[in-house]
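#struct-pred

JT: dropping the chains for the assembly here, can someone run the whole complex?
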Amino acid sequence: MTATYDILIVGAGHAGAQTAISLRQGDFRGSVGLLGDESELPYERPPLTKDYLAGDRPFAGMFVRPATFWSEHAVTLLPQRRVVGVDPRAHTVSLHNGDTVGYGSLVWATGATPRQIPLPEPALRGVHSIRTRADVDRLVAELPGVSGVVVIGGGYIGLETAAVLRKQGKTVTVLEAQDRVLARVAGASLARFYEAEHRRHGVDVRTGTALEGLETSAGAVSGARLTDGTVVACEMVIVGIGVVPCVAPLLTAGALGSNGVEVDEHCRTTLPDVFAIGDCAARANHFADGATIRVESLQNAVDQAGMVARILCGGAATVAPSVPRFWSNQYDLRLQTVGLSTGYDQEIIRGDPATGRFSVVYLKGGRVIALDCVNSTRDFVHGRALVLDGARPDIGRLCDPELPLSTLLTTGPGVLTG
Amino acid sequence: MPTTTYELADGTRRSVEMSLGESVMRAALDNSIPGIIGECGGQLTCATCHVLVLGECYDWFSPPDEAEADLLEVVDDPQPNSRLGCQLVLAEGMDNLTVSVPTS
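RK: done, full complex below.
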C-alpha cells in the first residue's frame, strides 16, 4: 500500500524541519510526512563547522526539536530514505528502495551536496567534506593521526574549519583559487582582514592557488600538489568548494531550473503542487536587484519554510522581502552580515579592523545594499534597517563609527522582522 | 527539576520543567511555547526570543553583554526587564523562574 501525505516534505534539514513546525503552528490538520536521507532526527547545521567540530558541543544538544516533538505534533518522520523520482501527474515520489509515496503538496527542501574533487585513486583515505554530522564524526575520528591539513576553498566552510583545526594545533593550509578568500560573498576589505587574522593564528593562506593533484601513500592522502608547483605535506584534505543543489528528480520531472530549481515569489516550482525552499531553490531576490539566485543561509531556509507553511495553511502569502542575514564564527570573531554585497561599487569601513571590531558598509550607486559586521552587533542591528530602507546616507557620517547607523535612517530602526 | 513559567500574551500560563544549563529559549522551543522563534539558534543574530523577566528573577542573571544589549534595542517595545531568552541559562537555585512572552 502506498503511503500518502497531505504534505510531503522531502529533506529534513532546517528548511524541511521548519516547514513541519510551522504547519502545525499554523494549525494545519492534514497529514505531514518529513522525509530525509539521514538517520538522525532533524539537527542544527551551523555548529558542524564550529562548536560541534571543535568538540565543544554534544550532538544531543543540537536537535531542532526533542524526539518526542514530532510524534506529539503528528509529523511522521521518514528517515534514511532518498527520493529518486517525482511523478507530478500522479502526485507521487519514488524512493531509492523502490517504495512509492503519495502527496497532496510536495515541499522540496533537499539542500545541496558538497562539490567533490577528482581522486587519484578510488577509496582514498583522508579526503573529507562537511555537510552532515556523519561527515564531521568521520573527520574527527581521523584527527588524532593528522598533523597537517589542507583546506581547499576559502569560503565560510573552509575558513571556519581552518580556524577550529588550527586552534587544535594542526598545521593548516588554506587554498583559495580566487585572488581573495570569501570572493563570492564578501568584498576585498573583509577578505583581507580574514586572511590576515588566519595568518596571525598561523594558518598558511594561499590565494590565487589551486590544487593540481593529491599525493598518496598506502591508500591515504599524503600531500597536496599545488598549481604553483609546491607540494604541501598533509594527512587530511578538507574540500570546501561549494555545493551542488539536490534537484535532479525535479528537473527530470520537468521542473524549470539550472542552478537549483527555479521558484516564483511563493516558492512554487513550475510543477503543480510542488514547492522548493532553502539552499536548493533559485528565486528572484529583491536584495540582489531581482537576480534569480539561491541563498545558502539558515535565515533563508527558515523564512521560506515559514512562508510556504502559511500558504499551505490557507493563509495569505506575504511577499514582503525578508532581509538576508548570515553569521560566521572564526576564532573570537563574530561576523554578522545583512543584505547581499554582490555588485557593490563602494565599501565604507566603520571602525578600525586592527581592533577586531569594525563593519564594512557596501553601497551600490550610493545606496546601502549590505553590511559585514565583525564584533559589531550594533551596526548589524541598525544596518538591517538601512538595507531595507535603501538608505542613501551621507558618506562622511557613515564613515564615523561614533555615529550610530540608526541616526542615518529615514525611518526608525524597527524590529528584526523583514 | 526546576520549573519555569511562561506568561503568554493571551493571559494563559505554561509551566515547563527545565534542566540546569538549558536556556529559556531552548525550553520554549522544546515545549512549543508560542512567540519564541529562536531562529538563529542562540547566536545573537536574530532577537526572536525576546522575553520579559518578571520580579526578582531578573537579578538572578548577569546583565546582558554588549551584543545582547544591542539586539534588545530593536525588539518590539523593549522594557527594562527585557532579555533574549537564548542568553538566560538556568543555574542552580533558579526555581520558579517566571517570564512573559510579549509577542505571543
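JT: nice. Residues 24-30 of chain B form the longest helix (7 residues). The mean pLDDT of chain B is 93.
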